[in-house]
């Protein structure tokens, strides 16, 4: 019997799984402009990310296939992050010794631009502090969830996938 993958057992992807299932953009690409990364390793019948992408950067062999991104075609528009019902798309951009990660923010309250927030890793544990640099509120998003971009230390770019408003 094959072993159940960690992400199914524990409910979150490790960075190693992400590298294996999806593949990460090169450092050069990460520094050029924001790039979308699909963290969606299960074969499910779902295609909004592919349909909304204006440059056909989201690749799926069939409607059940795991999405991949042609990182060179991605223009960092964040539409896939907004539309994904599984909250499984993120964008990452390296800027000097910081990274900016764009992510859905499901919980209330929604942080404000400029606000310092608590950074949470893939397991939901606190790993530091970051600052919200952009916000797409729910009413302007293509999906049902506000989208935030959070600046954080570069070394946390692949660990942090949620934030908590301080004092929550
Ligand atoms: S960020 Fe925009 S261009 Fe890049 S994969 Fe997502 S929808 Fe396509
Ligand atoms: S829209 Fe989201 S859940 Fe659906 S296939 Fe794309 S990444 Fe996966």
UniProtKB/TrEMBL annotation:
<dbReference type="GO" id="GO:0016491">
    <property type="term" value="F:oxidoreductase activity"/>
</dbReference>
<dbReference type="InterPro" id="IPR017896">
    <property type="entry name" value="4Fe4S_Fe-S-bd"/>
</dbReference>
<feature type="domain" description="4Fe-4S ferredoxin-type">
    <location>
        <begin position="65"/>
        <end position="94"/>
    </location>
</feature>
<protein>
    <submittedName>
        <fullName>Polyferredoxin</fullName>
    </submittedName>
</protein>
<dbReference type="InterPro" id="IPR017900">
    <property type="entry name" value="4Fe4S_Fe_S_CS"/>
</dbReference>
<dbReference type="Pfam" id="PF00037">
    <property type="entry name" value="Fer4"/>
</dbReference>
């Amino acid at each position: 019997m094959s072993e159940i993958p960690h992400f199914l057992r524990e409910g979150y992807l490790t960075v190693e799984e992400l590298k294996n299932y999806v593949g990460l953009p090169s450092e050069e690409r990460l520094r050029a402009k924001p790039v979308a990364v699909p963290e969606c390793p299960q074969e499910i019948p779902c295609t909004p990310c592919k349909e909304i992408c204006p440059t056909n950067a989201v690749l799926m062999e069939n409607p059940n296939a795991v999405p991949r991104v042609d990182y060179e075609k991605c223009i960092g528009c964040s539409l896939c992050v907004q539309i994904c019902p599984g909250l499984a798309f993120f964008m990452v951009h390296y800027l000097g010794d910081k990274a900016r990660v764009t992510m859905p923010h499901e919980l209330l309250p929604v942080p404000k631009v400029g606000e310092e927030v608590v950074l949470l890793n893939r397991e939901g544990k606190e790993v530091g502090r970051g600052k919200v640099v952009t916000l797409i509120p729910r009413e302007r998003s293509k999906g049902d969830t506000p989208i935030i971009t959070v600046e954080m230390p570069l070394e946390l770019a692949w660990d942090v996938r949620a934030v908590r408003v301080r004092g929550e």
